Amino acid sequence: MSFIHTLSKAWHRNQSLVCVGLDPEPGRLPAGLSGEEGIFTFCRDIVDATAGLVCAFKPQIAHFAAQRAEGALERLIRHIHDRHPGIPVILDAKRGDIGSTAKHYSVEAFGRYDADAVTLNPYLGKDSIDPFLAHADKGVILLCRTSNPGGADFQALDCGGEPLYIRVAQTIARDWNGHGNCALVTGATWPEELGRVRAVVGNMPLLVPGIGAQGGDVAAVMKHGQTPGGTGLMISSSRAILYASSGPDFADAAHRTADEMRKLINSFQTVL
Ligand SMILES: O=c1ccn([C@@H]2O[C@H](COP(=O)(O)O)[C@@H](O)[C@H]2O)c(=O)[nH]1
After folding, report:
1. Of all atoms in ligand 1, which is nearest to the CA of residue 145?
2. Nearest to residue 118, comparing CAs of 107, 53, 239?
3. Is the CB–ligand 1 distance for residue 116 below 6 Å?
4. Structural domain boundaries of the chain?
5. Which residue's alpha carbon is at the smallest distance from atom 18 of ligand 1?
6. ipTM of the complex in this document
7. CATH number for the domain running over 3-266
8. What is the mean pLDDT of residues 152-181?
9. Rounded Cα–Cα distance for residues 186 and 32 (Å)
10. What is the overall mean pLDDT for the chain?
């Protein structure tokens, strides 16, 4: 089943637009968990505690690679596929390079890690994304209007009367989405810009990081981002869920926090 189809089923089955980000920080793991095994155990327990409440999981590759824990990431994704088969995995890698190298990055994401979707930087243009787009069943999620304070440095530059991020959204929706497998990253911290993107991409899924630790506003995201069917969003939160408790009850606390976020989001839904 394709990423977009799996995502759509998860939205409805779990009644959830929540995406849990898996960003293990070595200094924040609960007592007794450390090293590659600790990272795996921590993330696995978070996954098992929240799988019934989410539409996707989003492991961030740097958090594993920096700790030489790529093996834990491989095991974690395998665990999600085995135990929670209806929940798609988005590998947050933000790759972007010339085609001959991008081909290897596509093997990394879809072969080595068996991710259902990957985040990519569109800055090098379509030929840098083609090796990913060729996997019609996989999701290709392109940076458009990122959540960070410096996101506007380039993304808001005037580009023929429109900001660059709108040109990015238009080009991807019109020219890159032949297989219907594209999605965009639009930060929760810029809800009005998110609404401008929604207006040009129709029902294309949007990955929306920035709720929780970055202070994004759920009501504003829902107002500007949901589709007429009340979905279309993967609203992502990492630290606020992962570190809801630093004690042995971390998984229960993650469950509670993810469920609160799910219910809050759903309270602003027009339809589901
Ligand atoms: O624009 C972007 C793109 C990606 N991210 C990633 O999402 C999470 C956010 O973590 P929080 O703890 O919920 O703030 C992290 O992995 C980022 O690399 C983003 O924040 N903004």
Report:
1. 1
2. 107
3. no
4. 3-266
5. 60
6. 0.99
7. 3.20.20.70
8. 98
9. 36
10. 98
